[in-house]
Design goal:
The chain has five helices and seven strands; from the N terminus they run E-H-E-H-E-E-H-H-E-E-E-H. The protein has a seven-stranded mixed β-sheet. The longest helix has 14 residues.
């Protein structure tokens, strides 16, 4: 569990993950409405050197941005699994950019096997608790590094 006492703490995690990002990186974000998924996405994009304003793609589903790597920001809140399958999202997941999916649990069945899951829980004010779990490389290594540096309790 990563605990961010304030927005700066959230930004530190987002900055670390953006620095590690490689082509094909997929990050699945989940959490209650208002937990901070879009705020995390914006901070991640900032540290991926995206210069455009990043906002929630709720009604457009996918927004593409240029940064150090192409950044694909998805919000699948309004989709069913069947609709998501028809969109060909795997082209993004296995492409040369970084994909961040808000409400990812909705399309869990079509997400890649190798993925970083982050579940965000809101606390008081801008305090957040984030449960990170990585499947496969490099995600397991990223979490191990965070643990070794004391950012995530062992």
């Amino acid at each position: 569990m990563y605990e961010a006492k304030d927005l700066q703490g959230t930004e530190e995690l987002a900055a670390y993950l953006a620095a590690q990002a490689l082509p094909g990186t997929v990050i699945a974000l989940d959490g209650d409405l208002g937990a901070g998924k879009t705020a995390f996405s914006q901070l991640f994009a900032k540290h991926l050197e995206v210069r455009d304003t990043v906002n929630s793609p709720t009604f457009t589903l996918i927004k593409e941005y240029e940064g150090r790597l192409p950044f694909y920001h998805m919000d699948v809140y309004r989709l069913t699994l069947e609709e998501a399958e028809d969109l060909g999202l795997d082209e993004y997941f296995y492409g040369n950019g970084v994909t961040l999916v808000e409400w990812a649990s909705i399309i869990e069945d079509i997400l890649p096997e190798q993925i970083l899951h982050i579940y965000i829980e809101a606390g008081a004010g801008t305090e957040r608790k984030m449960r990170l779990s990585g499947q496969g490389e490099p995600y397991e290594q990223w979490i191990m590094t965070l643990k070794q540096n004391g950012a995530v309790p062992k």
